[in-house]
Structure formats: C-alpha cells, structure tokens
C-alpha cells in the first residue's frame, strides 16, 4: 500500500513539473516586458531632460559618431550580423547614459533606471539606437529571450509574432525575442 501511494505521488509530481516550468517561463517573459517598458521610460525621460537622445558617443557635438546599440549588463547575446555587437565604437553600455550620467549631457537629471539590469535569463537588453533620428525606421528595445540568441534584425519592422512579413523587405520576426518597438 505504501509503495502504491509513493507511485501515485511520483506520477502526480511528474505531471505538475511541466506546468510549473511553463508558469516560470511565462513569469520571466512578463518580467522582461516590464523591463522593456522601464527602458522605454528611461529613453523618454533622458530625451525630455537633455534635449538629446542617448546615442552620441560624444554628447556635446551632434556631428560626432552615434552609438548604434546600447546594451545593459548581462551576457552578450548571439546576434545577426546587422546588430553591430562587436564594434565598441558604436556599442555602448546603458549604464553610462541612464545610471551613472554622461557628463556631455549638461541637463542630465537621472538616474533614469535604478541600476543596470540583465534580462531574466542573465543576458543583455539591447536598444537599437541606429534609427532613433530617422523618422521612418523602428527602434527596438529587445531581449534575446530564453534561447539567448537575438533573431530580430535591427531594421525589422516586425517583432515577436513569427508571422508578420513586411512586403517591402520580406523581414520576418523570428525566434523567441521579446521586444518593444520604441518608435
């Protein structure tokens, strides 16, 4: 009788494990979405305070090179070739703009986020600043999701449904990326 009870308990526990894992994953995705909204708010506040976007390598001169991607703390994610993650000239840490304060922005009133953050899987959040000053192109705030591999192109007009195709470019959002279109 004791053995039968133990077997029944084991079967019950094994059937609950996938449900608990799915709920945990859903909670992590929800946390990532909240973080993305917080990063969007930080962008908005930074712009309102300083009159500039946080994409200048040298904030004092609008003619200087721009940072194409801002990244948070965490593991660097695998990414498509069009996210310039290996180029330190255009790949800058969020901390310098939102947490510590860049001295080139005189009206900086931050911090705009309490601390530099990683996504729920321990990877970086990325903000694709490449298109911030171009009115017709999107700006993504993105997590590579559970698999840690970024699959949405920086210029993609769609994200996170795997079905939408832009007729002009044929770009498709792929994988498990969690993203927020900033503009």
- Proportion in β-strands: 5-15%
Q: State the shape.
A: elongated
Query: What average pLDDT do the residues reach?
Result: 75
H-E order: HEEHEEE
Provide the CATH superfamily. Glycoprotein, Type 4 Pilin
Helix count?
Answer: 2
Helix share bin:
25-40%
Q: Give the strand order, joined by hyphens, for the main sheet.
A: 2-1-3-4-5
CATH fold name, please? Glycoprotein, Type 4 Pilin
CATH architecture level-2 label: 2-Layer Sandwich
How would you describe this structure to a colleague?
The chain has 183 residues and is α+β, with helices and mostly antiparallel strands. It has a single domain (17-181), classed as 2-Layer Sandwich (Glycoprotein, Type 4 Pilin), CATH 3.30.700.10. The protein has two helices and five strands, in the order αββαβββ. Strands 2-1-3-4-5 form a five-stranded mixed β-sheet. It is elongated and about 75 Å long.
